Amino acid sequence: MKMQGMVLLTYLAFILQTSLFPWLVPAEFSDRIIPHFTFVIVMYAALYHSRHSALLLGVGFGMLQDIVFRGHLLGLHAYTMGLIAYFIGLMLGGRRLTMLSALAVVTMASLLYDLAVYYVYEVFRFTSEPLAWALQDRIFPSLFLQLAFALAIYIPMRRWFEGMVRLKPKPGKE
Amino acid sequence: MISFILFIAVIGYSISRAGLTMPEKFLRDTTGYVQQWFYKPAGYIAGLFQDIGNLRSVYEENEQLRMTAAAYARDKVEYNAIQQENDRLSAALKFTEEQKKIYDYKYLIAQVVAVSPDAYNRTLTINLGAREGIRERMAVVTVDGMIGFISKVSELTSTVMPITSLNAEESGISATVLGKQKQSFGILSGYNSETEHLLMTKISAEDPIKKGDTVITSGLGNVFPRGMIIGTVESTQDSDIGLTRTANIKLAAKLDQLSEVFVVKTAEASK
Lengths: 174, 271
Known about the structure:
The complex is a heterodimer. By secondary structure, chain A is mainly alpha-helical.
């Protein structure tokens, strides 16, 4: 039941970032501010729930994005999202992070995600723009958006995910 | 490590393969169905605020449109005469039925339902699919000009690859200059997001192309329709080895916040 709620929530975030959000940014910035709302939710799942559910969510919704917006490559977002979510969960999951450090982790992770996507496209020659330009043009402006979204959903997400963990305590965890 | 190998395998698979499998189609159509509930209302609300902002410029625009309408009425008379002449000549030269229909395009109105959240792959999803007769590599235009072509089709939705996301190998859209269709030829390849220019390459050294010219699709090869406006030439320069020239083109159509687009159905594709 709870896992279903999580999937539904992430699906809503996916719809929000693909169908609603393009209308919320001013037209001049639509190429520069690119939302990764599903990624932020996956990060919270990794931090406050478990790395396995984060891996599943990351791979699942990455794959959904890859298939729905099938462009040059298939599986790129599934791979990067799943991998980053799993390692963040492995390193930091289960620890009681404060709000600031959680936000810092989410920001770093989305920077890592953007860089990974950029490098894969560069390796396969789908883009030829220099990294400095990509950073300045879209990665940093988008980072602020990700940060704002992470801040906005921090408290409900944490309560919800931690409530889920508390409902079924696992042996070995505090 | 295993996941990395899997990743490379999936990517390799996706590069070599063109079509879509059943589960992929199903996922695309169901998601597209949900997305369309959100995209259109959001567009209406955003449009409302824009309209309020634009109220002041409406009067001026109206004035301009009236002048354009007058010019249109004048040109229409001339067009009819030329059209009749053309029909008579085609009949006299015994054109086959196929040759006559080659420039007979149909425009299908499509609603955009979603935009991809990936900077290097800004594909759009539209709500027309194979059921409505959409095929791969049909041109997609707005009232201002061409924005891209259909890259993937499933039953109810299809994916539009914008010309700004093209790389050199994939595109191969042949282009020419309005008014100099006979002398001018080039190939659109690649978009530079830094300067926001589309590159037109393989232009011969004698080409009369110059700054301010309107670039249109040439329709050579009959894959893309002819005469779709792409943009205006901003500058030209010699290429690296000096045998050909390249031109920087400013796009005519705006690619952000699209709500309605037209899919151009050529006679050949609709068979």
